[in-house]
Structures are given as structure tokens and as C-alpha cells.
Amino acid sequence: MSPTIIGLARDAEHRFSKAPCASITLLPGLGVDGDAHAGRTVQHLSRMAKDPSVANLRQVHLIHAELFEELAVKGFAVAPGQLGENITTRGLDLLGLSAGTRLRLGAEAVIEITGLRNPCKQIDGVAKGLMAATLDTAEDGSLVRKCGVMATVVTGGAVHVGDGIVLESVPLVFEVLGVV
């Protein structure tokens, strides 16, 4: 199966879950038009409290639908937008991408992966125990965060549910995703 966008969501307010929609517009250097997290500098409230001048590396949040299937096996019903993501994908190993990877979404929009989303306790507001279910432990004992990746918008454009995702470019040297 070719990588595909199966869900889109945005919210103009700083709420945890986002409202599903059929399309979004990505704005270069800002993020999702009409979303509370769009901006050149950090827009997450907890991060703004620390330093509002920091560059916004979390303009767009992507989660893979395969996580929802894994969570369903554990007894959690999660739909696109519920975990605060803007874009839900299928058929792409988001967590295995290198920092700096560029993805074309639909016909025009291009995003650059900046790092992992660090799950927070607000996830348990969707369902008790859900945050723990989004975490795992690697063989070396390190923490595996499965709650998606963050990106910045390189080239703007309209993105629709059902649009394809194309690997636009990959850095010459693989950089493991860290938390942003």
C-alpha cells in the first residue's frame, strides 16, 4: 500500500484533541492554517511559559494509523485527531524516519520531520492508561515513544484526506529522531 493520509484535524483553541476535517492548508514556516499551534515560534503553552522565543519545531503533528490498531488490541478505541495530531497516515513508518526527512503531502505541500512527539499525561484524559500504552521499552532498556512525529512546513499547500505521501528527500546521514 502506498503511504496515504487517512485523517486530518485542526483546532483553533489549545485543546488536547483536534476536530477532524476533510482538508487543511499548510502555511510555510507556520504550520496548519487555523490551528492553535501554528506559528514561527513555539505555540505549545507549556513551552511558551519556558521561552516563547524558541523556534516552533512542532508546527505539524503526524501519527500513524497503525498505532491506533495496536492500541485497539490493548482495548483503546482512538480516532484521528483524538491524540492531538493534525495528520494521520497509513503505510509509512514515521518513527523510523530520519530527522530532516522531507515528505510531500498531496500535490504541493512539503514538510520536514523535526523529531518525536513526547507523550504527555493529557493522553490519559482520552482514556485512563492510554499514555502508558503509547510507550514501550527497547531491547537496550531505552524508552520508545510511539505517539508520532513533529514537522515544520517547508512548502505550503492544501492537503486532503486520501492524498498520497511521497518521500521527497532524505538526509545523507541518518539522524535518529529525538524528542522536540
Fold and architecture overview:
Strands 2-1-6-5-11-8-7-13 form an 8-stranded mixed β-sheet. It contains 3 helices and 13 strands; from the N terminus they run E-E-E-E-H-E-H-E-E-E-H-E-E-E-E-E. The protein starts with a strand and ends in an 11-residue tail after the last strand. It has helices spanning 45-50, 65-73, 130-133, and strands spanning 4-10, 19-21, 23-27, 31-32, 60-64, 87-90, 102-105, 109-116, 135-137, 143-145, 149-155, 157-160, 165-169. It is mainly β and 180 residues long. The longest helix is centred in the middle third of the chain and has 9 residues, at 65-73. It has a single domain (4-169), classed as PK beta-barrel domain-like (M1 Pyruvate Kinase, Domain 3, Beta Barrel). The mean pLDDT is 96. It is 11% helix and 33% strand.
